[in-house]
């Protein structure tokens, strides 16, 4: 790691960790949605909305700190990109839950549980990785595994699309369900963006 003569603002590390922990909360709400009766989904969506607002607050706090700090722990552009990508994950997860409720989807398609399980695992890995930004140690396995999970999510997404277009659903249901699985795929992509940004930061700081 590069030797620095000036002190660095360290609160960013805690804020990134808090943002990632909130994403774990969101992934658990997604898992909860899977086993919930349709009548209970609106309440889950409300809790997800609260988590998404908490994520927005965490992102705004990072941006405020960035704008008011003379010295930052790593490049400003990378701080902005990491915060934005973490926020994107939460936005996509909240959107997926909201769509299920707004469209009054009764039965989620077979295989979507695998998609959500991948997101839950990526959330855990991301939350575990954020504290390591302080030292940049033990991060390689994190970004390798998240990239592997994103590839797995791509495969699951393609299988889900094939299932939706196999003729068992009417056209309107296909449109609704496709939007949900597409947004969950966007969340998987956002996890990869976070991992790639962490890799970039680690390389610069090495």
Automatic annotation (TrEMBL):
A Pfam entry, by short name: PhoU_div
Domain of life: Bacteria
Family indicated by similarity: Belongs to the UPF0111 family.
Protein name: Phosphate transport regulator
């Amino acid at each position: 790691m590069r030797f620095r003569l000036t002190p660095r603002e360290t609160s960013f590390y805690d804020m990134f960790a808090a943002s990632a922990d909130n994403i774990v909360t969101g992934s658990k709400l997604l898992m909860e949605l899977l086993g919930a009766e349709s009548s209970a989904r609106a309440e889950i969506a409300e809790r997800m909305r609260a988590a998404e607002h908490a994520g927005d607050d965490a992102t705004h706090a990072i941006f405020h700190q960035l704008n008011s700090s003379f010295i930052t722990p790593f490049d400003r552009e990378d701080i902005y990109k990491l915060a934005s990508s973490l926020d994107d994950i939460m936005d996509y997860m909240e959107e997926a839950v909201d769509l299920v409720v707004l469209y009054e989807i009764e039965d989620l398609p077979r295989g979507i549980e695998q998609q959500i399980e991948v997101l839950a695992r990526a959330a855990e890995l991301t939350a575990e990785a954020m504290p390591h930004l302080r030292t940049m140690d033990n991060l390689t396995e994190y970004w390798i595994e998240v990239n592997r999970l994103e590839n797995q999510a791509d495969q699951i997404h393609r299988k889900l699309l094939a299932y939706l277009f196999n003729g068992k659903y009417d056209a309107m249901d296909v449109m609704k369900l496709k939007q949900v699985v597409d947004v969950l795929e966007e969340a998987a992509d956002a996890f990869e963006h976070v991992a790639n940004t962490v890799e970039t930061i680690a390389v610069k700081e090495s």
